[in-house]
Amino acid sequence: MYTRPEDRLRWVKNGVLLLRDDAIRFNPKDGKLFRELAWMYQNKIGESLDLCHLAYKRELAKALSPCLAPDGTVVASEANRERLKERKLDLDRMVELQRRYGPLDWRLGESHAIYWASYGLPFTTGPERLMTRRLIYQSLMFLVLRGKLNAEYETEWKPEQNLAFAISAADELAETYREFPSRNMQKVFLRFLGKLTALEQLAGNEWMAHFFYERLVKALPEGMSVPSFEEVVREASAHL
């Protein structure tokens, strides 16, 4: 109901603080709380559904920038370790996630969604685990499309593609599909592989484009006709 960005920002920040500093502190093995916090970062901050989403994005970027390299990855130092503790972030965990997934830009909400969802994943089972895994692979998929923050983000927020996350996003999606096989997950996986094929081809990365195409072909259901490389690129490019 509030219209001023500063008012809406205050409520969003308080929601994050309530989950991060109180709820999780008193319930450190409640996976749903980690998932809800990850959702705040992915949906409320990372997405553009809220009218004041740019205020949330810039606030996060401003707060984390002192601890980061120019590309947004975290700088490992004892000084930063102490600064990050104030936001309940563990430097070693952040570095490990960068090793696992790629050059996470911690100015972006999606990186924090991955952090908190990954943190809470061991405490989940069944549908809650699937929802948490979904937050991780979706955030990686979003980073492929908008995971490189432009230099002028303080005045114009226009993040660019970051194909450095292509393999880790596909791997995370494949792992989720193996753990929770379904027709819908299969469709999501195949569609994303097709999109990666097209994105790499359009970027001039011929070898990587064929890498993802071959991966798509191997993942096709038995008996399904195999589309040509050109057909995959043409179909996926139409929906980019």
Summed over residues and divided by their number, the pLDDT gives a mean of 96
Tally of DSSP β-strands: 0
Low confidence ranges: none
Distance between the termini: 34 Å
Brief description of this entry?
The protein has helices spanning about 5-25, 30-45, 55-65, 80-85, 90-100, 110-120, 125-145, 165-180, 185-200, 205-220, 230-235.
Descriptive notes:
With 240 residues, this protein is an all-alpha fold. Helices cover 66% and strands 0% of the residues. It has a domain at 5-126.
Keywords:
mainly alpha, 66% helix, 240 residues, 0% strand, 11 helices
Strand and helix layout:
Elements lengths: L4 H22 L4 H16 L6 H12 L13 H8 L5 H11 L7 H12 L5 H21 L19 H14 L3 H20 L3 H14 L9 H9 L3
Helix pairs in contact: 1-2, 2-6, 2-7, 6-7, 7-8, 8-9, 9-10, 9-11
